[in-house]
Design goal:
CATH topology of the largest domain: Nucleotidyltransferase, domain 5
Distance between the termini: 16 Å
Structural class: alpha/beta
Strand order of the largest sheet: 8-7-6-9-11-10
CATH superfamily of the largest domain: Exopolyphosphatase. Domain 2
Shape: globular
Oligomer: single chain
Helix content: 40-55%
Order of helices and strands: EEEHHEHHEHEEEHHEHEHHHHEH
Largest sheet: 6 strands, mixed
CATH architecture of the largest domain: 2-Layer Sandwich
CATH class of the largest domain: Alpha Beta
Strand content: 15-25%
Length: about 290
């Protein structure tokens, strides 16, 4: 059985197709296909407040491609969600309806709280009983989740993200609000460890020296950020071999992760290979099981 997830963010849209594996009573998912395309919808929305006809056309074409891939893989169930850019777009719901009519792909536009819940459902698997600050940086928003004893005790979404920062469109007071939320909620009397999700922290982690198999230090993230910053955008693409849509947003994203860690007093960051797409895979499987009962 194969399940799929489509995650339409402010920077890119991703398709992941996974096999469902059964080991006794334990269910797990193995990735068999992953495609990422840089739509950069956030540019339209954070600049004009709505998606342009060109962006709608490109998104429609991409959904047609993703639908064909799901058909080739004989996917039994899927979940498609759009986050910050489409939920803030004045014409987001209308665009989603037109895409449904043309492609058959139903896009659910979810709010920051629902986005955080879906990510939480998979990230909690990588935690232990210590205090963790989960930082998920997207193109248009950052979700912060605080965990204690593997239980989420608070969360909040902020209108600050890599694309938004790149274009100088961050929400007024977003930095201050994030700082205040961390100070009010993180217990500085005990150790706090950061958990980072998102494409940019995964790339930074891949370039960093590892502390453990799944973690590195704030000093390493800072070092890699400074190293990348020495290069021009062209050199980041041609010499460091970063994708163009990663090369321009990786430094703004790094600044968000580092700021949150410093404010929380976290010196270590865990980077599991998990995110919204994995939460969507899990949700699609659960909904399919309910239908079959």
């Amino acid at each position: 059985m194969k399940i799929a997830a489509i995650d339409i963010g402010s920077n890119a849209a991703r398709l992941q197709i996974s096999n469902v594996l059964h080991n006794g009573d334990v269910i797990s998912f193995k990735k068999v296909e992953y495609v990422r395309f840089p739509l950069r919808l956030g540019h339209d929305v954070f600049t004009f407040g709505a998606l342009t006809e060109e962006s709608e056309a490109r998104t429609t074409k991409l959904m047609q491609v993703y639908k064909l891939l799901m058909e080739l893989h004989e996917v039994e169930a899927y979940m498609a969600c759009a986050t910050s850019a489409m939920r803030e777009s004045e014409n987001g719901p209308e665009v989603a309806e037109r895409i449904l009519a043309l492609t058959g792909i139903k896009i659910h536009i979810i709010d920051g709280k629902r986005e955080a819940e879906l990510i939480n459902n998979v990230v909690v698997q990588a935690l232990d009983n210590r205090q963790f600050l989960h930082i998920d940086v997207g193109g248009g928003s950052t979700e912060l989740n605080l965990y204690q004893n593997r239980e989420k005790i608070n969360s909040r979404s902020f209108k600050i993200g890599s694309v938004r920062l790149l274009e100088g469109k961050e929400s007024k007071g977003a930095w201050r609000s994030m700082h205040e939320w961390i100070e009010e909620n993180v217990d500085r009397s005990q150790e706090v460890i950061a958990v980072g999700t998102g494409g940019n922290i995964s790339k930074l982690f891949n370039l960093a020296s590892k502390h453990t198999e799944l973690s590195t230090t704030i000093d390493e993230i800072e070092r890699i950020k400074d190293y990348i910053a020495q290069y021009s955008l062209d050199d980041r693409i041609n010499k460091l071999r970063l994708n163009p849509d990663r090369a321009d947003v990786i430094l703004p994203a790094a600044e968000i992760y580092l700021s949150a860690m410093k404010w929380a007093g976290a010196t270590e960051i865990v980077v599991p290979d998990l995110g919204l797409k994995d939460g969507l895979i899990q949700l699609a499987y659960q909904q399919l099981c309910k239908k079959k009962k």
